[in-house]
Design goal:
- It is a single chain.
- This protein starts with 14 loop residues before the first helix and ends with a helix.
- It has two domains: 13-87, DNA polymerase, domain 1 (Orthogonal Bundle); 97-380, TIM Barrel, CATH 3.20.20.70.
- Helix content is 32%, strand content 17%.
- The chain has helices spanning 15-25, 38-47, 53-64, 78-87, 159-171, 194-205, 225-234, 248-254, 263-271, 295-305, 330-342, 377-380; strands spanning 97-100, 106-111, 117-125, 128-132, 136-138, 153-156, 181-184, 217-221, 238-242, 281-287, 310-316, 346-350.
- The chain is of the alpha/beta class.
């Protein structure tokens, strides 16, 4: 299978290309203005006979003020607003269906304009509120421990749809609550949708966009080695690599991407990454009972990551129907962590959030019927 299946080249730099992409990925007859970069908007503004500063005005309305109509952009000339209305659309996202967990986590089921459904998660913890963002509708990576894999890949999300999750989440915050961190750990493989991820990150981190510090953003990948270097060269965000195994035999089984980028290839790629000083690569490790949680696995992990500036997040497996795996016991996870610590490897245990609404790590699976999104409480929170 060709590499381009996993990583698309980022060459979209003209209004025409954005229009073609929008027509392909949405049933709207007009391109979505939220998919445009500032440079593209400046070109469009010049073509319309306006001065280029109008592009920044439009971006301000879209992202700082959350405008959902051209009529609200009252500091633009009326004729120009009419021109925009004829040629473009503003792809606002419908109010999501929200499921609330007993621990304060909120899962947002978002229906897109072509009736695809995606999920985002607001995760409040002490001192921060994190938004978990989806980059695709479904996923093609086929990881056995992840419910999203059961959907298969429906399609890539456009940049406006990725960014729309941020805007939708902001509307669902509790009084006094503010989003502080953003993680691309929702549905899909972000680096397999790199052109749109690039556009979304550009808007998120630009002063003319959402103005979010890259230090507040983490992009997770199952291990698309060729694209990791490119991401960090383009954006100084945090990188999280879904590792989950210490042998190719096990990783081939639970994360099929390993057959294309085996462990040694992945680790070598990580060694070559341009990691800034005082930063580390986070390696995510889902603890599966009797699969990858032995003492030997822990010792191999110490040896594997020794050459890297790394930290490990040990994640409790969160069950979903017919998963075929069981979570490791807390005692086993803590013993595993202790071995990593003795090997001078930083390791934390990520506590599950939102399990009672099927919003925990690995449980996202967008259903067409909002009432069916959440597992029954007894099933979602079943013990090991």
């Amino acid at each position: 299978m060709p590499l381009r299946y996993f990583v698309e080249s980022f060459t979209m730099s003209s209004v025409t290309q954005v229009q073609a992409s929008a027509a392909h990925e949405s049933d709207s007859p007009k391109p979505d203005l939220r998919d445009f970069s500032l440079h593209e908007l400046e070109g469009m503004v010049r073509e319309s006979g306006e001065r280029t500063f109008r592009a920044r005005q439009i971006m301000g309305w879209l992202w700082s003020r959350g405008a959902e109509s051209f009529d609200s952009m009252h500091d633009l000339p009326a004729e120009f607003r009419g021109n925009l209305k004829q040629r473009f659309d503003i792809g606002s996202i419908a109010r999501p269906h929200v499921a609330r967990s007993s621990d304060g986590t909120r899962k947002l089921l978002i229906r897109l304009r072509d009736a695809e459904d995606i999920e985002s998660v607001i995760i409040p913890t002490e001192g921060r509120t994190t938004l978990c963002i989806s980059s695709q509708a479904g996923c093609a990576m086929g990881c056995g421990f992840c419910a999203t894999a059961r959907m298969g890949l429906h399609r890539n999300l456009a940049a406006g749809e990725i960014l729309g999750q941020v805007m939708a989440a902001r509307c669902e915050l509790d009084p006094g609550e503010t989003l502080t961190n953003y993680v691309f750990m929702g549905m899909g493989e972000p680096l397999a949708n790199y052109p749109r991820l690039h556009r979304a990150l550009t808007v998120m981190t630009s002063d003319w966009g959402l103005g979010i510090s890259p230090r507040r953003i983490t992009v997770s990948t199952v291990g698309l080695a060729p694209a990791m270097d490119r991401l960090l060269a383009d954006f100084p965000v945090h990188l999280a690599v879904s590792l989950h195994a210490t042998t190719d035999e096990v990783r081939d089984r639970i994360a099929p991407i390993n057959k294309r980028f085996p462990l040694q290839v992945l680790i070598d790629a990580c060694k070559a990454l341009p990691i800034a000083r005082r930063r580390r690569i986070t390696f995510e490790y889902v603890m599966l009972d009797g699969v990858n949680d032995s003492s030997n696995d822990a010792h191999r992990l110490v040896k594997m990551l020794a050459p890297l500036r790394a930290k490990v997040n040990l994640i409790f497996f969160n069950p979903f129907p017919d998963a075929g795996f069981m979570p490791s016991s807390r005692e086993r996870v803590e013993d595993f962590q202790a071995i990593l610590h003795r090997g001078n490897l930083t390791a934390t245990i990520r506590e599950s959030r939102g399990r009672d609404i099927a919003a925990a790590c690995g449980q996202l699976f967008a259903e067409r019927n909002p009432a069916a999104v959440s597992l029954p409480r007894s099933e979602a929170a079943s013990p090991a």
